[in-house]
What we know:
Helix content is 41%, strand content 20%. By secondary structure, the protein is α/β, with parallel strands linked by helices.
Amino acid sequence: xxxxxxxxxxxxxxxxxxxxxxxxxxxxxxxxxxxxxxxxxxxxxxxxxxxxxxxxxxxxxxxxxxxxxxxxxxxxxxxxxxxxxxxxxxxxxxxxxxxxxxxxxxxxxxxxxxxxxxxxxxxxxxxxxxxxxxxxxxxxxxxxxxxxxxxxxxxxxxxxxxxxxxxxxxxxxxxxxxxxxxxxxxxxxxxxxxxxxxxxxxxxxxxxxxxxxxxxxxxxxxxxxxxxxxxxxxxxxxxxxxxxxxxxxxxxxxxxxxxxxxxxxxxxxxxxxxxxxxxxxxxxxxxxxxxxxxxxxxxxxxxxxxxxxxxxxxxxxxxxxxxxxxxxxxxxxxxxxxxxxxxxxxxxxxxxxxxxxxxxxxxxxxxxxxxxxxxxxxxxxxxxxxxxxxxxxxxxxxxxxxxxxxxxxxxxxxxxxxxxxxxxxxxxxxxxxxxxxxxxxxxxxxxxxxxxxxxxxxxxxxxxxxxxxxxx
Length: 472
C-alpha cells in the first residue's frame, strides 16, 4: 500500500487497521466531505475490501447519500455485484438519492438481476423516483409480468393524480390497456396547453428534444446521428422525417424533458463518443419555434474494440450546457442486436453560479443572457439570499440541489476563499459531471489548481469578451 493509500485508509477507518471488530466508524463523521472526496478521487487505489465496506457504511447516512450515489454512478461496472446491489438498496431508502438510484436501475435494467429491479418497483410511492419507475415500465414493457406493469402504472397514476409528465408519453398499446377512466383522464390532460397554461396563454409551446442513431455498428462503419428540437404538436411528423432520413436504419427516441427556449435563441449541439470520429463535432442552429434537425457524420475507428460505447449529445446556450443526452451504441462484428442497452438524459433547469465578487458585472451579464434564452433558474448569492438567512447552510443546500454548478474562473476566483469552498463542496456533493467551468481569463492568467486541471479551459466566448473589454 502506498503512502497516499495508507493515509486515506487511516483517515477513513480510525482504529480499523488495528482491530477490525472494535472499529469506531463514528470518527469518520468529522471529516466526511474529505473522506468522500478521497474515495471519489482515489477509487482505484484504495484496497477494494476497505473501500467497499466504507461505501456501504456511508450509504446508510442520508446526509451524504447524494455523494455516495455519484460514486456508484461513476464506478458502476467496477463494483462487485453484491456490493453494488446492497448500495443501491441502501441509497434507495433516502429521499435525496432515490431519483438517482431509480435512474441507475432504469439505465442498466437489462444488466441487473431481478431482485435489484424489484428495488425500483418498490419505490413507486416516492414522488422523486416515481417518474423513473414509469419510464422503466415503458421501456421494458414486454419483459415484465402483466400484473406488474399495469398494476404499477395504475397505482402511480392514482397516487399522483396524473401529475407525472411521463404519463403523457405512454405508447398507445400501453394506454389502451389501462382502465378506461385513466385513459380518459390522460387524453384530457394530454394537450400541451393543459400541462403548460402559462406558455399556452402566450401562444408558446415547450421545446422537446430527441435523438436518432443506429442501435449497433461495426468497426470502420460510417453512419449519421441526428439531434432534433421540436414542439409537441409536430412529434409524429418529426418522427416520420427521422425514419425517412435514416431509411429505417436508425432508432429515434423522442420526448425528452421540456425546455423553454426563447425564439431566435442560438443553440449549439456537440456530439462525441469513444472510438468514434464525428465531423463536424458541433453544429449551431437558431430556434424559430417549430423544429430543427441537425445531422452528424460519425465514423467508427477501424481498430475499435467490440464493446459498448456512448454517443454523448451536449446542448449549449450562451456557452452553458443545458442538456446532456447519453445513448448507448454497440460496436460489434457479429449479428447486430435488436435491443438498445440504455439511454439517459440529464436536463438542466437550475444552476448555481460561483464567481468572485470582483467579476460580478461580467458574470451577471452572462447569467442574464442564458436565463432569458433558456429559462434556466440560476442561483446567485447577491440576488438570491435574503438578509438574516444562515447563508453558508443555504449555499451548501443550493449547491447540492441545483442541477449544475457553473464555476466562473479567474485570478480573482482563484484567490477567493469562498469560491474555493464552493467548488470543493460541489466536487464532493455533485461530482465532476455536474460542474461546468467557464474561464474569464486564459489559463496562463489564471492557472487552475490540481483538482480542476482535468476540466476544459477553452471557453473562447468568455476569453474573447475579456479581450474586447480591455480595449475600452
